[in-house]
Structures are given as structure tokens and as C-alpha cells.
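Reproducibility note. Readers wishing to regenerate the assembly model reported in the main text can use the exact inputs given here. Chain order matters: entities are listed in the order in which they were concatenated for prediction.
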Amino acid sequence: MTKSQLIERIAEKAEGLTKRQTELVVETIFESMKEALARGERVEIRGFGNFSLRSRRARRARNPKTGEPVDVPPKKVPYFKVGKELREMLNRDL
Amino acid sequence: MTKADIVDRLCERVGLPKNEATEIVELLFRTLKNVLSEGESVKITGFGTFLVRKKGTRKGRNPQTGEEIQIKQRRVVTFKPSQQFKALVEKA
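Running the prediction on these inputs yields the following C-alpha cells for the assembly.
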């Protein structure tokens, strides 16, 4: 499923919101979550899961084209941990 | 940040009344959970992809007793952040 299909599905059920408005709302939700992570905050959605940042150490990698070594600085990456309710829902019919 | 904070953000930026904002935030996450639990992956452009993957049956061991146990097949969700999301938090 893509974002636009998700928006359509939500717009069908959201009373009083047009598809255009639903689109704006969905974009704003994901945007505000990204901003929170960029500030170094965690995002906790009960039943769905938590988003946090994990640290990656600096490492020496290689340019795959030239074979030349390059230094990759330490960085943070987004991490998602699935919530209990979603985990149980996934395995209900297995 | 919790769902309540996302609701506040929606009220500020989109001008939705609080009850409507709450409803749509709930609706979004409920829909995501339903789609994923049907085994379907969801790709949110600019944010990332929630992938549903199947793990096969495997043998495990109870770490406390050392007893061998069967771990049943199950489904797991992994999140692959978009390039844009990764670039945004890299230096956070």
C-alpha cells in the first residue's frame, strides 16, 4: 500500500474531511513525527510502536567505484520498535 | 512525543478542532495496524516503508533452563526509513 492509497482509505472513513484535507492531515502527522526525531525526541505511539534514534559509529568504508577508502562520520539513524498490540495482531491468524 | 502531541500539532497547523484531530490520528494508526496485520507492507513516501516479513519455524532454547523449544512461524514488521528521513536525523 502506498501513501496515496492510505490517504484514500482514511478519507473514506473520516467524516467531514475531503480527500484534499485528509492528505494535508496525513502529511502533517508524518512531518511532525520526523521533526520530533530530528530534535532527538522519541515518538511513542501506544499499541503501534516507538520511533527512536540509534547511534552508528564512525567507520572507514570504500567508494565502490574507485575502491578508495572514505571516512564515514558517526551518525544517528531512525529505529522503529513494533508495539505489543500490533505484534499480536500480526500473528493472530497464523 | 506521544499521540497527544501529534494532535496538538495538527490543531496548530491545520486548524482542526481537537476532537476531530484526535479522531483522525487514531484512524491513521488503526488503519496502518489493520493493513499491516493483513500482511501488506505500507510505503509512506518521504517517511519510510513498513515491511511485513515472515519468519519461519525455528528451534530455540530457553536461556534459563537450557531446554530446547520450537519457535513457531511468525510475522514481524520492520521499518526502513526513507533517504530523506535518514538525512534529516543524521546529525541530531
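We highlight two features of this model. Chain B is about 40% helix and 30% strand. Strands of chain B lie at 42-44, 48-55, 58-61, 68-71, 74-81.
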